Amino acid sequence: MLFAKEMKIEGDTDVYVLHPNVKSYALKDVGFQISHAGNYTLERSVDPTSPYNKNQMLRVTVAKDLSGFKMATTNASGNSRVNIFKGTHAEGNVEQYHFILQNLIDREILQKKQ
Predict the structure, then answer these.
(1) Contact 59, 8 (CB under 8 A)
(2) What InterPro entries does the record tag this protein with (predicted)?
């Protein structure tokens, strides 16, 4: 999947874009790691009971030149996308997902598309 200017998670009504003021140090402060290719990657569990329970994950990758990003909710291994807005634990998972994204918005990494 190529880096995009805007992303929407399956089941979510909001579309997100990179904040125009995004900086590499802000990405590192929030917990993004630099991949072998030089891109910034963040993986967070959307399980509200434990950040260590990695059944369903939010994965965000920002291009090394900060020109685009990828975002997906996946299973623990990352090889299958999941819709966290459906299922028995959807309410808690969605709440944790929005909490993570709000942190990225507050740090001027992402913003909701107008």
Answers:
(1) no
(2) Amino_acid_metab_prot_put, Lp2179-like_sf
In angstroms, the Cα distances linking 9 to 19, 22, 37 are 17, 20, 24
d(CA 70, CA 24): 16
Q: What is the pLDDT of residue 25?
A: 94
- The burial of 74, by beta-carbon neighbours within 10 Å (0-12 exposed, 13-18 middle, 19 or more buried), is given as middle
Sign, Cα dihedral of 16, 22, 28, 34: positive
Question: In the predicted model, is pLDDT for residue 5 greater than 60?
Answer: yes
Among candidate residues 56, 108, 51, the one with its CA nearest the CA of residue 85: 56
Taking only the tens place, the pLDDT of each residue in 26-66 is: 999 999 999 999 999 999 999 888 777 778 899 999 999 99
- The reported pTM is 0.90
* Beta partners for residue 7, in sequence order: 16
